[in-house]
């Protein structure tokens, strides 16, 4: 039997079950990279060019720059064992076949390739129908009590409330008048507002970008302006999510929500909507608020630009 220290240092091999196309491209570039964050069920890796890759277990919804490794019961009783020994700033060795972080080895050869990019303009007022009303009601009543929406509804005159209100006003003006300059200014005002790893203002902007991509056949100019306005003023992780959403690249849950809206399936709309709202501490609630508000603009149901 090998010594205990030899067992502890032996390679820990994982087989990825799914990899997003942007993550596959990230690996192909073979970047110099380091671990940025370590959580129980995921690890974020930062390349020297600023691009982020996320390695996650199936407990986490697939994201636009993620590799998903399926949980295996024989590896232990919790997914925390996946990333045992992985530390922030650890060196990452990457190539097209996978990556290595210390003793952790992740192979992607047999993983399903997944395209996280939305089809532009797949939703409109006719296709969404009553689904938008369901989502609005779900968001108002189901959002976290600590979310951006709850703060806005409190009407307490706080700095946070004023800044988000001003940002949304600029975004409304920019979207309705097809003005990238106003969109960039609104995004700049929202960026970095709030607490947490991805602040509320950033999550709200992700939802706005999902709304632009699903509601417009050509969202490119406005989406790029929001990305350019926001990313210099927030964290690397938030900037990665905003940049991806600006390209229409979003998590699987948003694809599922768009499909439910297209199918006019009320049960699916509500169940997938709850999946969005349950993402993170308040991230899902804040992103859903941006998404619903943007679709409302297109449908004429909520015009705060006047």
Please provide a written account of the structure:
This protein has helices at residues 4-9, 21-28, 125-128, 131-142, 148-154, 159-176, 180-190, 200-215, 220-230, 236-246, 252-262, 266-277, 283-299; strands at 12-20, 33-38, 42-47, 52-57, 66-69, 91-95, 98-101, 104-107, 112-114. It is built from 13 helices and nine strands. It starts with a helix and ends in a 7-residue tail after the last helix. Helix content is 47%, strand content 15%. Residues 1-7, 73-80 and 301-306 have low confidence and may be disordered. α4 runs antiparallel to α13 (283-299) and α11 (252-262) runs antiparallel to α12 (266-277). The protein has an eight-stranded mixed barrel with strand order 1-5-4-3-2-6-7-8. It is of the alpha/beta class and 306 residues long.
Q: Major sheet: size, sense and barrel closure?
A: 8 strands, mixed, barrel
Structural class estimated from helices and strands: alpha/beta
Radius of gyration, in Å, reads 20 Å
Q: How many DSSP helices? A: 13
Quaternary structure type: single chain
Strand-and-helix sequence, N→C? HEHEEEEEEEEHHHHHHHHHHH
Widest beta sheet: strand line-up = 1-5-4-3-2-6-7-8
Query: Would you tell me the overall average pLDDT?
Result: 88
Point out poorly predicted stretches: 1-7, 73-80, 301-306
Count the beta strands: 9
Q: Beta fraction of the residues?
A: 15-25%
In whole angstroms, the N-to-C terminal distance is 75 Å
As a percent range, the share of helical residues equals: 40-55%
What general form does the structure show? globular
